Amino acid sequence: MNDETSGVPKPTFMRKCIRVPLSKLIALKPIKPDVKRGGKYQQILTSVREVGLVEPPVVKQAPHKKGCYFVLDGHLRVEALRDLDVPEVDCLIALEDDTYTYNKHVNRLSAVQNHRMIVKAANNGASPERLAKALGFTPETIRKKFKLLQGICEEVAELLADSNCPQTTFDVLRRMKPVRQIEAAELMLGNRDFSAVFAKALLLTTPPEQLVAPDSRANKAAGVGQATGIERELATLQSRAKILEDSYSDDLMVLTVTKGYLTTLLSNAPIVRWLTKHHPEYLKEFERIVDMESLPGVARVSGNGARHVSNKAQPSL
User: Fold this and answer.
1) Rounded to whole angstroms, how far apart are CA atoms 55 and 282?
2) pLDDT of residue 85
3) Which residues have a Cβ under 8 Å from the Cβ of 176 and sit 6 or more positions away?
4) Which stretches make up the RepB plasmid partition domain (predicted)?
């Protein structure tokens, strides 16, 4: 935002963090008990306990309560600090009464990025046990993440670097030779489907000479007819995606506007309190919409397998 008189960009945050007692922080949405029992919260709790708070919560001065602040972003981090009996926390102070939901616009760590972070930490001397304790994983999980790209060609690692591709999919790709890995990765990107089931379907259609260790029994069991059927199904899915794309943009625009409006409503503390008291069932559904990680994008695949994605968003603590 620019200052109309000087043309100088107006700052959105204070230049320095301010230490605020947790008792002065007011949550704009309640933390439900099932959220605190979930894996995401437990991972945040473990991380804060072991390595401290990495990213400060974003808060804004409460207009009618001197010294109190509304939490705009970082509700789970603040709750973790409370559970750990930490009395105060350094906060980033927002100067604008903006409905911008900060972490919704941050790309989450993908599996490849997570792997590179763990490799870098290990190269700096961190043991699997220490990493596991800090990140809330088991040491065996850390070792698996460390070996994620073994047997994966460099081109595929780059193609899938920003995708939400699970480790099981890499296990399937590892059974293919590099050329076929690239073809499979491009098909997954084009269809926006990174599941192990889709990867296994591509594995079944892979000629034996493009496999690292051909299994004649598995290929025989699949049969030519099954492979042909899978290829036909892939072509049908791509055709359906193209048909849906033609009518999708209008629906996506309506959903985007609706999500933005609900975000505005739920950033208003009096409205949230009123909904909690009078219509909690509406509040629950509104929060589900606002908490969507991303609005689903549409992807197209051209005849040569190249990918064209209309929008993308990714899966940090």
Assistant:
1) 31
2) 92
3) 184, 203, 206, 210, 211, 212
4) 106-286
H/E stretch holding 88 reads strand 88-93
**Which spans in the chain are helix H?**
33-36, 39-51, 75-83, 111-123, 128-135, 139-146, 154-159, 167-173, 178-191, 196-204, 216-266, 269-278, 280-290
Separation CA 68–CA 60 (nearest Å): 9
The span from the CA of 274 to the CA of 267, in Å, is 13
Q: What angle (nearest 5°) sits at the alpha carbon of residue 73, between those of residues 68 and 75?
A: 80
Q: What is the mean pLDDT of the chain?
A: 76
Q: What 3-state class would DSSP assign to 276?
A: helix
Report the relative pairing of strands 69-73 and 18-21 from DSSP bridges: unpaired
Q: Which residue has the tokens 């000087």?
A: 6
Distance between CA atoms of residues 50 and 18, nearest Å = 23
Spatial separation of the C-alpha atoms in residues 37 and 51, rounded to whole Å: 21
Query: CB neighbours (10 Å) of residue 139?
Result: 14
Residue 6 has pLDDT above 80, yes or no: no
In this structure, is the dihedral angle defined by the CA atoms of residues 304, 188, 198 and 311, taken in order, positive or negative?
negative
Per residue in 209-247, pLDDT (tens digit) is 889 886 544 454 455 555 556 666 666 666 666 666 666
Count of CA atoms in the C-beta half-sphere (13 A) of 15: 1
213 burial type by CB count under 10 A (0-12 exposed, 13-18 middle, 19+ buried): exposed
**What are the CB-based long-range contacts (under 8 Å, 24+) for 62-69?**
62/26, 65/26, 67/24, 68/24, 68/25, 68/26, 69/20, 69/24, 69/25, 69/26, 69/93
140 alpha-carbon distance from chain centroid: 23
* Model confidence pTM above 0.90: no
How does DSSP assign 41-74, residue by residue?
A: HHHHHHHHHHH--SSPPEEEE-TTSTT-EEEEE-
CA dist., res. 220 & res. 77, Å (int): 53
